[in-house]
């Protein structure tokens, strides 16, 4: 039986599999240990199909049984291999809509609870998080280049901190941090990561998320607002997958006599090669007043 092989690097991007990817054995080789998460599909009746997805604690299907995708999805935690290799194989190839997220376990240090969330493409999801017993993590996955995720609001206790990461939980994968000092002026925020991790370090918090731009108020300008723009799938380091990184952002109101605001921007990070470029255009609805091309 042929198999697929992946190498998981410390602090690298995660590998995301769908149901078809596991119809043949998938073998993972990690720098430390293999960490496996499961994001069930939106159709709850399919959850039982996850029982056919088996995790073996070693380099092939003859290795000891470690767990099933179903047990991972129900436990709200990660499954970790004993050593540096693990194999995933669906013993019955049943169509499902789940995703398996696999990474080197070094990125998940001191996490008390980690839960996958399917964000509805049209609704607003209200997520309650508690980190009273340790760091709590909610993660989402979005592979659609035409849909973005938006954090609308965060209500949190004094002293609490919400950190957001793309692809993993290393320091260089952190995107932004919210506290009671900036959760009013810096939201809403568009988040264009493939894998997005919301990490609450202490206390309790309530998050409002959506993938519906009109419900996010993302394009609404107001005095004192702050935020950032990124390319699509920012922080993803597996460029051989050919993920489209183009991104378009608009803040303002294209109506007559709309309010005008003074604003400033900084380009903080750019990784350009070949024919890639950054174009920034600022206009007043009539003419271009500033243009940046790099």
From TrEMBL:
Query: Domain DUF7592 spans what residues?
Result: 22-90
Q: Supply the InterPro entries for this chain.
A: DUF7591 (IPR056013), DUF7592 (IPR056014)
Query: Coiled-coil regions in this chain?
Result: none
Q: Where does the record place the DUF7591 domain?
A: 108-212
Top-level taxonomic group:
Eukaryota
**UniProt-listed Pfam families:** DUF7591, DUF7592
Q: What is this protein called?
A: CUB_2 domain-containing protein
Say which species the protein is native to.
Answer: Caenorhabditis tropicalis
Lineage of the organism: Eukaryota, Metazoa, Ecdysozoa, Nematoda, Chromadorea
